């Protein structure tokens, strides 16, 4: 991850690393993004917008994180085609 911010919410929500941070599925990515947010507060606004978007698209119920991971993997498999 470089020190520049992403240009759009769309760019962020398509980023595997960002999604791993958001869903807390990869501890290393969580640490990287937490560090970026603390060291580059100028990126916080676009990250906050992406988080708000993701929260608005997820049903308010208990989430099976194994299913999230499987869905995430399937999504990325389709994107990479």
Explain this structure to me?
With 81 residues, the chain is mostly helical. It has one domain. 68% of the residues lie in helices and 0% in strands. It is built from five helices and no strands. Helix 2 packs across helix 3. The chain is globular. The model has no long low-confidence stretch (mean pLDDT 85).
List keywords for this structure.
81 residues; 5 helices; 68% helix; 0% strand
Average predicted local confidence, pLDDT: 85
- Judged by helices, strands and strand pairing, the structural class is mainly alpha
Q: Helical proportion?
A: 55-70%
How many structural domains does the protein architecture include?
1
Number of helices: 5
How large, in whole angstroms, is the Cα Rg?
A: 13 Å
Distance between the termini: 23 Å
N to C succession of SSEs = HHHHH
Write the layout of secondary structure elements.
Blueprint: H1 9-13, H2 16-23, H3 27-39, H4 44-57, H5 65-79
Helix pairs in contact: 2-3
Outline:
Helices cover 68% and strands 0% of the residues. It is an all-alpha fold.
